[in-house]
Design a protein that fits this description.
- The structure is a single chain.
- This protein is of the alpha/beta class and 478 residues long.
- It folds into 3 domains: 6-142, Orthogonal Bundle (Fumarate Reductase Iron-sulfur Protein, Chain B, domain 2); 156-251 and 410-477, FAD/NAD(P)-binding domain (3-Layer(bba) Sandwich), CATH 3.50.50; 253-407, 3-Layer(bba) Sandwich (FAD/NAD(P)-binding domain), CATH 3.50.50.
- The protein has helices at 13-17, 29-32, 45-52, 63-67, 74-82, 86-96, 100-106, 113-116, 128-142, 164-175, 192-195, 204-216, 233-238, 269-277, 304-315, 336-344, 413-417, 449-452, 457-477; strands at 156-160, 179-183, 220-222, 243-246, 252-253, 266-268, 296-300, 320-324, 348-350, 353-360, 366-379, 385-389, 395-398, 401-404, 408-409, 423-424, 428-429, 431-433, 438-439, 444-446.
- The structure holds flavin-adenine dinucleotide (FAD).
Length: 478
């Protein structure tokens, strides 16, 4: 529901629909590729007011609200922003989202709020994401941010994983007065916000500022603790936790199963991005080294992770960076925006190509990749045309570094070590009601990528929030 109903607004919709659009200012590719800083210049107050005043205030429910997985009240926020009421706008976002400063930066807006904006029909969509970034930064700088904490209930919830799903869950549990403790296998909290998404898309300080809100609200963090290995879910119940939320994501890189995969110089995307983008002091002890990349880098895969790897490799100083994908650009699963940025920054693309073997040089390090050409065959079950090898078309590419960005699987260890917890598809946690993350084991709830498979920050966070409501009900019923 919109807080400020559109029928009360006296606005000239036609004039707004054709109001000038100034777009976003980006740093030039030749400059931005030299560092890991933000690519987009933030909006200032004048630009924010002007941009928000382009919103034509569609009747409730507005398409942007429906498309937003949190159902943020975007039209009302736009109304507040155009009047300079930035802190109120930020508060509105915080009613429905636990991580507005993060989602505003990393959501694929062109597929969500901005993609559904009716202005797309005639013009350009309102820059909902950048406006959310502007007001949440303004709020933090001027008014500060605090998570309201409810009257203590004496109930304790263990959150396994400290990524967006668990953070979404924790915020609402804290508001209900429950105490929360995060357990994560990594030294620092944040999940893929810290150990995956590159800095040029999401500066780490944004994640840490938000994390400090959780700490101030009383959340505890236990790092370097792998549930299923260092201790089990049952151990957590033994330690007097009343409920457990599993937000462990899908952290295992898919394998290619071809010869030479283990050669020095062949990286998995997670390892490469984490070591390429994260402060070394925040990495597990055995990972505190930047990836060594040569002049020629090949990234294998067609998703967003592949674009992130291409752009990280360019920033780490590679001279020739090429993406290899076995279908054509049309079938690529990754977003166009990130791919376009990668192209602008100098990445090359080689389509209909499949690696079949990594080849070592005399020193034992990766020196080349043998590939085979592909053609598109019949559509698969999802309607995507299957790549089919072209017999006898093998060829080699000389390369110093290869990065495999092929997708992710869950670690089955929690399912294997938690009696009564059902899993499927190599470790995804089965939920009896996806809306609220109830699992087959009493007192254990789950959300985020470990339930859905690889998805988005915003969807993980929303599923954590929904699970928090179910956990609260459960704790009250105990
Ligand atoms: C390279 C990359 C770039 C991405 N870019 C974007 C983007 O731009 N926009 C977007 O919306 N989404 C993006 N995503 C997807 C997004 O990051 C995920 O969908 C989201 O982080 C999932 O949140 P989560 O909380 O479920 O899991 P995660 O963020 O994966 O967090 C899970 C946490 O659990 C910990 N953990 C795992 N197993 C255990 C265990 N057994 N015990 C203790 N701790 C454990 C992990 O260390 C991790 O810290 C990207 C993903 C990747 C890989």
């Amino acid at each position: 529901m919109q807080t400020i109903p559109s029928e009360y607004l006296e606005i000239d919709r036609k004039a707004r629909a054709y109001a000038p659009y100034r777009g976003l200012s980006l740093r030039p590719p030749t400059e931005r590729v030299c560092d890991f800083g933000d690519v987009v210049f933030p909006l200032d107050s004048d630009r924010a007011m002007q941009e928000a005043a382009r919103c034509i205030h569609c009747p409730d429910p507005a398409p942007c609200m429906l498309a937003c997985p949190c159902h943020n009240d975007i039209p009302s926020a736009m109304w507040l922003i155009e009047q300079g009421r930035y802190v109120e706008a930020a508060h509105l976002y915080r009613q429905t989202s636990s991580l507005p400063e993060i989602c505003s930066r990393v959501c694929p807006h062109e597929q969500l709020c901005e993609g559904s904006c009716v202005l797309n029909k005639t013009h350009e969509p309102v820059l909902c994401g950048s406006l959310e970034t502007f007001v949440t930064s303004y709020e933090r700088e001027t008014a500060g941010v605090a998570i309201p904490v409810g009257k203590p209930t004496g109930k304790k919830v263990a959150l396994v994983g400290a990524g967006p799903a668990s953070q979404g869950c924790a915020e609402l549990l804290l508001q209900q007065g429950h105490s929360v403790t995060f357990f994560d296998s990594k030294p620092a909290p944040g999940g893929l916000l810290v150990y995956g998404i590159p800095n040029f898309k999401l500066a780490k300080e944004v994640v840490f500022y938000r994390w400090s809100d959780f700490e101030k609200a009383g959340a505890k963090f236990v790092g370097n603790t792998y549930i299923g290995k260092d201790k089990t879910v049952d151990d957590l119940f033994q330690e007097d936790f009343d409920a457990v939320f599993l937000g462990v994501g899908v952290g295992i890189d898919a394998k290619m199963e071809i010869p030479g995969e283990g050669l020095p110089g062949v990286y998995e995307a997670t390892d490469f991005l984490m070591r390429g983008n994260t402060d070394l002091s925040l990495l597990p002890e055995n990972k505190r080294e930047r990836p060594v990349i040569g002049k020629r880098v090949v990234v294998i895969g067609g998703g967003d992770t592949a674009s992130d790897c291409l752009r990280t490799a360019l920033r780490l100083g590679a001279e020739e960076v090429t993406c290899i994908y076995r279908r054509t650009e049309k079938e690529m699963p990754g977003g166009k925006k990130d791919r376009q940025m990668a192209k602008e920054e100098g990445a090359k693309f080689r389509f209909l190509t499949q690696p079949v073997r990594f080849i070592a040089g005399e020193d034992g390090h990766l020196a080349a990749i043998e590939c085979i050409e592909m053609r598109l065959g019949e559509p698969d079950a999802k309607g995507r045309r299957k790549p089919v090898p072209v017999e006898g078309s093998n060829f080699s590419i000389a390369v110093d570094t290869a990065i495999k960005a092929l997708g992710y699987w869950p670690d089955p260890v929690i399912g294997e070590t938690t009696p009564g917890l059902e899993t499927h598809d190599w470790g995804l946690v089965t939920v009896t009601d996806r809306q609220i993350g109830v699992t087959t084991r009493e007192g254990v709830f789950a959300g985020g990528d470990v339930v859905t498979g690889p998805d988005l920050v915003v969807t993980a966070m929303v599923s954590g929030r929904k699970a928090a409501l179910a956990i609260d009900e459960y704790l009250k019923s105990k």
